[in-house]
Amino acid sequence: MRLAIADPPYPPMFSERRDREGGPLRVTSRSRARRWYGDGPRSTTDSPAADFHPEAGTWDDLTEHRRLLERLVDEFDGWAIATTPDGLGAYHPLPIAARIMAWHRPTAMPGGGRLMSRWEPVIVLIPEERRGRAGMRVSDVLTANPPTAGFVGAKPPEWTRWVLDALGYEPATDELVDLFPGSGSVAAAADGMLALAGAHHNPREERP
Ligand SMILES: C[S@@+](CC[C@H](N)C(=O)[O-])C[C@H]1O[C@@H](n2cnc3c(N)ncnc32)[C@H](O)[C@@H]1O
Asked: Is the CB of 180 under 6 A from ligand 1?
């Protein structure tokens, strides 16, 4: 099977504001893609940017996210897209078989509003042959803390293992494409699964 994990820069954050009390509501947007992976604007309290991509700003266009989903549907048997709760709309309508899993991040930065932001969705399309109850069952909620320092947006190894378990990843036979490698943490966790599977499948290594 051909599987993909897509962890692109997240869609921009839209908000409504009134310039004066009683005035009309105005919609504003703030780029997450350029803030973390491009040429700003950034706040003085932001941790250092993760890396720089000259075309990060293309992810401020919601149609780019839609194009990503269509590419995944065309080219892969199973896939996952990481995004934000408010970014989900960029991917709708989803394929009927797609599911949304919740990454609960207890120590994540809570944001400034009344609702503390503590989770991120992962949209998954499990390969058709792997959707049944046979084999491992996987919760659609993962509680794991994001890495405390380093690359902004990096996923902890538990996240990758959870997503790949949901996709029914068979390390020895599946091809896995990490479309937005960033820190390399997704590939590193997948390599760990491959190494474990190799050890398990090799009877010579199981002898004392
Ligand atoms: C959310 S991060 C990926 C994090 C990664 N999964 C990890 O665990 O470290 C998104 C990545 O996409 C890159 N990126 C930004 N704009 C891009 C573009 N137009 N095309 C491809 N990659 C881009 C960013 O530089 C960043 O490395």
From this structure: yes
Q: Kindly state the DSSP code that residue 180 receives in the 8-state scheme.
A: -
Nearest CA owner, ligand 1 atom 15:
56
Domain map of the chain by residue range? 2-16+25-202
Is 143's pLDDT higher than 70?
Answer: yes
Rounded Cα distance, 135 and 153, in Å: 31
pLDDT of residue 108: 85
For 181-207, how does the pLDDT look when each residue is reduced to its tens digit (9 = 90+)? 999 999 999 999 999 988 665 555 444
Closest CA to 56 of 76, 71, 41, 74: 41
Q: Which has the closest alpha carbon to 155: 176, 178, 175? A: 178
Q: What is the pLDDT of residue 205?
A: 47
Mutate to test the pocket of ligand 1, among 10, 36, 53 (most ligand atoms within 8 A of CB): 53
Homologous superfamily in CATH for domain 2-16+25-202: Vaccinia Virus protein VP39 (3.40.50.150)
Q: Is 0.85 topped by the overall pTM?
A: yes
> Does residue 158 have its Cβ closer than 6 Å to ligand 1?
no
Ligand 1 pocket check for 151: Cβ under 6 Å: yes
The reply to whether ligand 1 has any atom less than 6 angstroms from the CB of 6 is no
User: 200 CA to middle of ligand 1, Å?
Assistant: 33
